[in-house]
Write a structure and sequence with these properties.
By secondary structure, the chain is of the alpha/beta class. The chain is about 45% helix and about 15% strand. It is built from 19 helices and 14 strands. It has a five-stranded mixed sheet with strand order 2-1-3-13-6. Strands 10-7-11 form a three-stranded antiparallel sheet. Strand 4 and strand 5 form a beta hairpin. About 50% of the residues are buried.
Length: about 425
């Protein structure tokens, strides 16, 4: 009887053990507009659970990119960071300086090494690398694109199939498309751009300017190309009055979808929102060029945290790899508008069918040959806050573009001084 009982106990353990052995990991992730994008992330998690019943992912929406980073830093300070998180490429140096994350090279090597990385678009990988190591793999990546309302183009006497391709054309088109009432107040803006330095980086790059050094210790905001780029943006707002000041990311894309602005410079990551919300004919195009065609790469990747156990790190890698597979990236592209990071995702039948119905989805991908890394430094969020605050003060005419950019340069240099050693 005693031996029979032990056999029953052993059988019970064998049956129940997999449930006990499930590895649980915590994932922090950001999206600007909740609703559909949160559901898309949760759907990827649900599919992962079906394919990997031995791993449980607790997914936590952390707000927008900045809020999600604040959440992670607070968790680090409390001694309980996530096991896996989606953070911006420009957060890499901060996370590394905090000794918070592990390089992924061992995981990558096991799954094919350089051959595995070569399956991603190169620009999406390079800005997630530093010191010869890869610190994250690309998940939700983006570039700014030009959205335009073809119906408003027609009303303004513009060709709905010819969006502006240069800065001069952008200003001229915005002037023609801006509508004012008899009192001179704007009722429809010609162009809307959120006050965001990621978008401003593209203008600086288009003017042949530099953003930050490769060692993340310097910025070049006081150089002539950067000042001229800010002058052009400021003139559109204050001199020509075709661009509203101080619109946020969510406000500006909602303005476009509501038909309140003829053009919008914004992330491809909101293409789904425009697709589902706009009640007019619309198109997208490359950002207009100036001295050169250029656009700043944006978006985020999966980082694995150092404090996680080896078991949790392994589970985190399995989820990150799953979410970045061609099939999941095609689904994410269709569901969000973020560019599928895997080249082969665009060869899948589901993606080809979607692109045939909505060719706008291919514009951001086709713009990638002109994409350059966004400005990134040590203590990145402190630097960004100084820059965006100063930029808004320039828009409010508290400083000229030259005065403001030199002021921002000086303040950021003080922040970066300890890292010059």
């Amino acid at each position: 009887m005693r031996r029979h009982a032990w056999v029953l106990v052993a059988l019970f353990v064998l049956v129940v053990a997999p449930a006990w052995a499930a590895t649980e990991i915590k994932l922090y992730y950001p999206v600007h507009l909740t609703g559909p994008l949160v559901k898309e992330v949760e759907a990827i998690v649900a599919d992962f659970h079906k394919a990997n019943p031995n791993i449980k992912v607790e997914s936590v929406w952390g707000g927008n990119y900045a809020e999600n980073m604040q959440k992670t830093v607070a968790a680090l300070q409390a001694g309980s960071p996530p096991d896996l998180a989606v953070h911006l490429a420009v957060d890499l140096i901060t996370l590394r300086d905090l000794d918070a994350v592990v390089p992924l090279d061992e995981f990558i090597q096991r799954d094919g090494g350089e051959k595995y990385l070569a399956e991603f678009f190169p620009g999406f990988v390079s800005d997630l690398q530093a010191d010869g190591k890869t610190w994250a793999i690309p998940f939700q990546r983006s570039t700014p694109i030009l959205y335009y309302n073809k119906d408003l183009f027609r009303k303004a006497g513009l060709d709905p199939n010819k969006p502006p391709t240069t800065w001069d054309e952008l200003l001229a088109t915005a002037q023609k498309a801006t509508v004012r009432n008899p009192q001179g107040q704007v009722t429809t803006w010609g162009l809307t751009i959120p006050d965001d330095i990621w978008l401003l980086m593209s203008f600086i790059m288009q003017n042949g300017g530099r953003t930050s050094s490769r060692d993340f210790k310097k910025v070049y905001l006081d150089e002539k190309p950067a000042i001229e780029a800010v002058q052009f943006w400021t003139d559109m707002a204050n001199k020509h009055k075709v661009l509203p000041r101080h619109r946020t990311f969510p406000q500006s894309v909602q303005d476009f979808a509501a038909g309140n602005t003829a053009m919008l410079i914004h992330s491809t990551g909101n293409l789904r929102f425009v697709r589902d919300s706009a009640k007019f004919e619309w198109g997208v195009a490359f950002l207009p060029k100036h001295k050169q065609q250029a656009v700043a790469i944006g978006g985020a990747g999966f980082y694995i945290f150092k404090k996680a156990s080896k078991e949790k790190q392994e589970a985190a890698w399995q989820f990150a790899k799953f979410a970045c597979s061609p099939e999941m990236q095609a689904r994410w592209n269709i569901g969000s508008g973020y560019i599928a990071t895997r080249k082969s995702a665009f060869d899948l039948p589901v993606m080809k069918e979607y692109a045939a119905k909505l060719p706008q989805v291919l514009v951001a991908r086709d713009q990638l040959p002109y994409a350059l890394p966004e400005m990134s430094t040590h203590d990145n969020w402190k630097m960004r806050n100084i820059f965006v605050t100063t930029f808004q003060e320039i828009l409010d005419e508290k400083y000229t573009p030259e005065e403001g950019m030199k002021k921002a340069q000086a303040e950021i240099e003080k922040i970066l001084a300890p890292f010059q050693k």
